[in-house]
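Progress note, sequence design subtask.
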């Protein structure tokens, strides 16, 4: 537990007085901190979210909460929340302070609506920052396809970086509604932004219609029975790339499945879309250290060159 508290102290001492970008402060899940593999801590300025991914003894959790309550959070932090992801409904407990009426994930000048305690995910994935930077650097003047768009964070990044259009596709109408709100929150016009509530695996015609696209983001869930299971379904998406991208188009292929290594995507792409060439695997975020890089979030840049 001392490693967690020491890391929090170091980070808080370095916080500036202006609102900070959202980031991971402590990443135990990468197994770099023995005994704390089930703990993470995130900053959603001015709130700290501590997440427990598996049960510990009641005494350990009580000790943790007591330590959080006695910690010197400085004037910058309004609240500390502990979420127990191992319990049904992933309930969250406010252990310090009071939550702001509205809470956001921040990235530069952009804000994204998030929710703590009402579901497993906040609505903004901190480990995807290398992918957002990749998109930001190359989407000016481009048409972007955002598959499995969730709350459309990639779409906001693309539009703010000069993309001429974005098609967001997700089967969750609620996530897409939050995506629209994220665009409005950042004063972005919706004229060239599409929100397609589709089951991607069954709606390729409607997905293809606004294209062809210059850039495709492919970021499916790793394991969602009845919808998408990466081990058996990913190839069905990769084989559609020629129908979606212009020649010379770029694809960001994402895989968040520790049990599936780098070779899984590379061999699958060679089989399903041999006209795609691997340009690079993006470097994972340094905020998410892992004792085994093959288990980290994997982000691949492929180029379609028929």
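Output:
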């Amino acid at each position: 537990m001392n490693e967690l508290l020491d890391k929090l102290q170091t980070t808080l001492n370095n916080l500036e007085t202006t609102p900070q970008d959202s980031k991971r402060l402590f990443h135990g899940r990468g197994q770099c901190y023995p005994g704390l593999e089930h703990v993470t801590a995130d900053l959603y300025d001015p709130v700290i979210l501590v997440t427990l991914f598996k049960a510990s003894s009641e005494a350990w959790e009580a000790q943790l909460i007591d330590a959080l309550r006695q910690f010197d959070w400085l004037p910058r932090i309004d609240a500390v929340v502990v979420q127990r992801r191992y319990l049904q409904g992933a309930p969250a407990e406010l252990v310090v302070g009071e939550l702001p009426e509205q809470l956001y994930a921040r990235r530069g000048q952009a804000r994204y609506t998030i929710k703590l305690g009402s579901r497993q995910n906040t609505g903004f994935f901190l480990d995807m920052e290398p992918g957002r930077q990749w998109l930001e650097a190359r989407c000016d003047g481009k048409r972007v396809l955002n598959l499995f768009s969730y709350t459309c964070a990639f779409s906001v990044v693309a539009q703010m970086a000069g993309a001429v259009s974005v098609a967001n596709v997700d089967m969750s109408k609620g996530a897409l509604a939050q995506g629209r709100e994220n665009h409005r929150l950042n004063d972005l016009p919706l004229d060239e932004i599409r929100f397609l509530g589709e089951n991607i695996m069954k709606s390729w015609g409607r997905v293809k219609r606004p294209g062809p696209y210059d850039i495709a983001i492919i970021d499916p869930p790793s394991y969602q029975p009845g919808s998408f299971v990466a081990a058996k379904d990913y190839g069905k998406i990769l084989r559609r790339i020629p129908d979606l991208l212009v020649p010379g188009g770029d694809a960001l292929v994402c895989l968040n499945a520790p049990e599936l290594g780098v070779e899984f995507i590379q061999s699958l792409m060679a089989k399903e879309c041999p006209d795609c060439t691997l340009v690079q695997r993006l470097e994972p975020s340094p905020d998410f250290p892992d004792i085994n890089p093959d288990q980290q979030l994997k982000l691949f840049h492929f180029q379609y060159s028929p």
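The chain has two domains: 2-113, 126-304. Work on this subtask will continue into the next period as scheduled.
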